[in-house]
Amino acid sequence: MAHALGARASVSPSVRTDASLRKTGFKDHNKLRFDNKLWITLSSVNLKSRYSSTKYQFKVMSMSVQQAVRSKIPVQPLELENANEPPLNLYKPKEPYTATIVSVERLVGPKAPGETCHIVIDHGGNVPYWEGQSYGIIPPGENPKKPGSPHNVRLYSIASTRYGDSFDGKTASLCVRRAIYYDPETGKEDPSKNGTCSNFLCNSKPGDKIQLTGPSGKIMLLPEGDPNATHIMIATGTGVAPFRGYLRRMFMEAVTTYKFGGLAWLFLGVANTDSLLYDAEFSSYLKDYPDNFRYDKALSREQKNKNGGKMYVQDKIEEYSDEIFKLLDGGAHIYFCGLKGMMPGIQDTLKRVAEQRGESWDAKLSQLKKNKQWHVEVY
Ligand code: FAD
User: Fold this and answer.
1) Residue among 91, 97, 156, 312 flagged as catalytic
2) How far is it, in rounded angstroms, from Cα 19 to Cα 321?
3) What is the mean pLDDT of residues 285-311?
């Protein structure tokens, strides 16, 4: 954390004017309570003119830097920080939890190929989870392959922190891409073959009931033991979901037990600008935490790589490979999430870069895995 207090004092958090954040529950908090004390956030005062006394300056400097410079959102219930292990499979397919849809919001612009939705689910605090875990959803109806039985569970990465978008520990959010089937011969949509669960979720309405299982997964948990760690996150499309959760925990919420002071670096690959997911939220962190957050986008249909081809996340990885390799050597965690098809291209690039550096990728990869620095969840 290298923010100088004075340099940050006059900067208003950009989130306060961001409509998309307001929609997902971000409210204007000029006055926040930390540890039962009322702090006026620095965006709402002119520190130089009104609070120039030595006493006040000492008080501000003695707070954590993040609390001093940010208007983070207080979260509760704080017991959600007490567990030593993540919750696992509290609800199983035979006895799922009946949750309620709070909202369904289209995330992408008109020029995006396909539709991706942000879905907020009310679990009443009964299906707690940690950032990086997934929920299972059982769509309504009968499994066509097993008449008389329910559909199989579909997994979705949770895109919120454990506190949810309403900061009260009662909701979870998903980032769901609607699976549409196009006939390879005619090129036309064949609705009878559209994805069952993704369409059910994207078509659902506030108040609708859904069957939840989980939470599941330990691979993508955020290792919080070292709050100054480096986290390199590589996402394609909805693979950004767990990273949205991480980043809200790092930069949006006032979490008493986890005060992030490391580096989070997100690489996001999508088709074009209209397909970007949570871009306003991520851009606000970039503005407010330039020393702790980096955000690189690969827009395959809009940008060209150095060879004149489409720009994919692996091209961005290659562009920054020196820094990435150094960070990995220094113990950084690297996470991959998105469609399975992203991994071969990324692995080829990492192998090529390693060889150019005179290193063996196979040896490096096994070391990263052994050190638990390598986290992959692709589907
Ligand atoms: P299904 O009904 O299961 O169909 C699968 C595919 O087959 C669809 O593309 C469908 O169009 C096609 N199809 C259906 N019938 C036919 C037919 N007769 N012939 C040919 N093709 C056909 N997805 C997300 O959107 N967001 C996430 O965050 C996310 N996280 C995940 C995390 C994990 C750990 C895993 C394993 C998966 C994740 N997924 C995620 C994927 C998700 O679980 C589903 O696989 C996805 O939504 C498709 O499910 P569906 O029920 O809509 O499609």
Assistant:
1) 156
2) 35
3) 97
